[in-house]
Amino acid sequence: MLPFKTLIVIDESSTTAVYRQVSDQLVVMISDGVLQPGTFLPSTREMASLLDKHRNTIVAAYEELITQDWIEPLPRIGIRVSLNLPLIKPRSFQEDGKNRTYSSPAKFNFKQNIPGPTANHFPLKRLSIVVNDGFPDADLAPFDSMFKEYRKLLQGTKLKKLMSLKDFGGTPALKDSTVNFLNNSRGLNISTDNLLITRGAQMAIYLAAAMILKPGDNVLVSDPSYYIADEVFKQMGANLIRIHVDQDGIDINGVENALKSFKISLLYVIPHHHHPTTVTMSQSRRTRLLELIRSYQLPVIEDDYDYDFHYNNSPVLPLASSDHDSNVLYIGSFTKLLAPSCRIGYLIGPANFIAQATNLKRLIDLRGDTLMEEALSAIINSGELDRHIKKSKKIYSERCDHTALSIQKELSHAVNFTKPHGGMALWLKFKPEYPLGDIISKAHSSGLLFTGAAYHEGADQKHNGIRFGFASLKETEMHNAIKILREITM
Amino acid sequence: MLPFKTLIVIDESSTTAVYRQVSDQLVVMISDGVLQPGTFLPSTREMASLLDKHRNTIVAAYEELITQDWIEPLPRIGIRVSLNLPLIKPRSFQEDGKNRTYSSPAKFNFKQNIPGPTANHFPLKRLSIVVNDGFPDADLAPFDSMFKEYRKLLQGTKLKKLMSLKDFGGTPALKDSTVNFLNNSRGLNISTDNLLITRGAQMAIYLAAAMILKPGDNVLVSDPSYYIADEVFKQMGANLIRIHVDQDGIDINGVENALKSFKISLLYVIPHHHHPTTVTMSQSRRTRLLELIRSYQLPVIEDDYDYDFHYNNSPVLPLASSDHDSNVLYIGSFTKLLAPSCRIGYLIGPANFIAQATNLKRLIDLRGDTLMEEALSAIINSGELDRHIKKSKKIYSERCDHTALSIQKELSHAVNFTKPHGGMALWLKFKPEYPLGDIISKAHSSGLLFTGAAYHEGADQKHNGIRFGFASLKETEMHNAIKILREITM
């Protein structure tokens, strides 16, 4: 409710009747847009008490306003500001600009041209199927266990104490659980000093880039690469140098040539199920890359968002678990393990780097979501996360097989793809005679919306490819999506 | 589980027996720290299947390792890497540095000296009472309703569709609810184009500062001011110019003089229950400040974290609801309304500024917590948030009265304070003969931990003040805290 006591000032010495002073000031508030059409006013009794006036005064003021059509009584509900105001039409608020506090654009200096998402003008209601970038299936996520933990935490005093700690880089329990989880699953050899808990992998990429890059720095990325990471580096003022990717991962000769030719401040790699192409970097390239990292003392962001989902082969250990002389920053997330709405990720690095990154994270986000962090720690420690990963892996592996088979059968005239060793998406490269822009828009007309990363505009035209996230698609959805793609490409 | 299939390579043509090849390679993994003490190995049957060898081969390999004390069988549980490894003591991993991937500090360039929290070396277990900076009481928060919404959302397909939208600035439902909530409670006149949903007010401050400030810019802040905002501005490379605060808020003559003398890029103000001093800016100063904002076209961050909790007086409308010619960015949060773990805040500004700020937020945090945003929207729309605010306000108002009375009675020899018009904390200024550093450490020895903002070091020595958050303190806790303070000051 508005602070009417402050807003309505009564001058007892005025020649204007008190009820008219009240009604006049309410008219000003309504015509200024402070009281908007549809807003309910306090009852006459409440308003009388707020203003410390007799109730009859307020009744008279309200009656005046009702007569003038400024307010309207709704029997048994209350009195509201009229939806159709006399004289002033809502539109005019915007046109003359006088009453809208933000009617004009900001004229002060601020950063412009920050890259944003391409617009998505597709009304979702009409659509039958959404194919995403490769999200986990939230139906599988152990939300019940997490909610049970939430309740437990809210009943005790533990949460209150946790909020009093000055651990801005994640709750102590989650840091311990994550260190164990990563050391056991990835052969890392880290302690909590090497770990910062973030909101999803995206914040970890942003923090690492903000810590390392200055305007004009050169960053090596693959061609193509995860486009939102590209945008982060550009936002820091960096130049991107793109290195070709083939079926064995990023081209190491290309990396070496770039290192010989330019001063390189950062390399961004995704060795497991590279985004968007889904290829896994071969063991021999990893070995060579590690040699380059050590000899050039090259800072690296290793984005390993997809490590836990490998189907046919065992995963290869991350670069971060080999000898990199403290140059590899390792990034991953629990989001892909649980559900897109559970955004908890991590940044691993040398202790001196992590200490400063933790300070920067505090300036952006204070302490994160303590409740979710504690609940996640509990399901890691109880073994539920491992069980969940096993179960999901089985289901996603089947979905991967079915989707690949079905695309092979129905779409081989139009797309090339290689079934990945793991992950949650296929990388569909449409043949040049099927320009992806057309495919996306025709698919949409047929009720299929792609929200996955698409690479087909400008310099990306040569890829003509899109991510087809299968992990969250039920079998019928997958078949219907492919059926639509077949129809529009035949 | 580690990818043993990849890690253990068997050479069938070697003269070394296969079981010894397996055991030798496991020894290397253990001594390299890839397999850490206490880690469970796969059962012989599982390992045999992983490596595609006969089970007897693995039994022989394991027996070899047991004999050498590398691994130990736990009857009916499994086989784990020995806690006390032969030859190599865990400590040596760190000392020679060879096996720890992050044993040396990062040598590449990265931002240093990012301000961090002052260490809090106080073991919480020993403490009986924690007095915070002014947090809401999580016991009052409508978590049950929020969890009910979580479940509802997880059962339907709505969440999946929401995750497919490209609305990175908050879910459409929460944006609508927040616009209504703010227009109705604060007399704003905004649309969703003026709103960005963030993680708490902290992210809103960071985003606004990152958008406006360049290294060397001058920022006006109060003396004292919210210290983490100070740190954000410093992190952007800005110079802080401090303006005195008295019982009517920030000194407007000081602001005007600074505007006359320097190029000012930003003013940061907290008109309601200023942090840390809790004073509310007077109406006449607001009017003068708005004149200055318009005539100097001065960009302003108005941090209104505490608007909804006013006890004795009505709140004064924010600067953002008056004519500021699109120069005031308005920041607030639902965190203070609900619980410290529900971190949802907002940034309000001109549409062109908000569009770019939304892009920047996407690079840092993608889409936020969709589940929590939808649940919050539901409890705003159902009226539950308003009921919750009313209920909390009553309780906090009583706690404010009791705490103020009690401090007046027990501590007036040592502290000065003015009971605030609202908010969740008192600003206790200790008299010079009670240096705050001593008070804090003596209090801690007696089982009372202050986690609220303390201003007593360096240039802040003149304040010698600390925030005493009363809103989350039960009556006994409050009395005990004050009793301890009395004892150590008598």
Written overview of the protein:
The structure is a homodimer of 490-residue chains. Chain A folds into 3 domains: 4-96, Winged helix-like DNA-binding domain superfamily/Winged helix DNA-binding domain (Arc Repressor Mutant, subunit A); 124-135 and 388-489, Aspartate Aminotransferase, domain 1; 142-382, Type I PLP-dependent aspartate aminotransferase-like (Major domain) (Aspartate Aminotransferase, domain 2, 3-Layer(aba) Sandwich). Helix content of chain A is 42%, strand content 14%. Chain A contains 17 helices and 16 strands. In chain A, strands 4-11-10-9-8-5-6-7 form an 8-stranded mixed sheet, sandwiched between helices. Chain A has a 4-stranded antiparallel sheet with strand order 12-13-16-15, with helices on one face. In chain A, strands 1-2 form a two-stranded antiparallel sheet. The radius of gyration of chain A is 29 Å and the shape is globular. Chains A and B meet through α1, α6, α7, α8 and α9 of A and α1, α6, α7, α8 and α9 of B.
Descriptors:
homodimer; 490 residues; alpha/beta; Arc Repressor Mutant, subunit A; Aspartate Aminotransferase, domain 1; Aspartate Aminotransferase, domain 2; 3 domains; eight-stranded mixed sheet; four-stranded antiparallel sheet; 42% helix
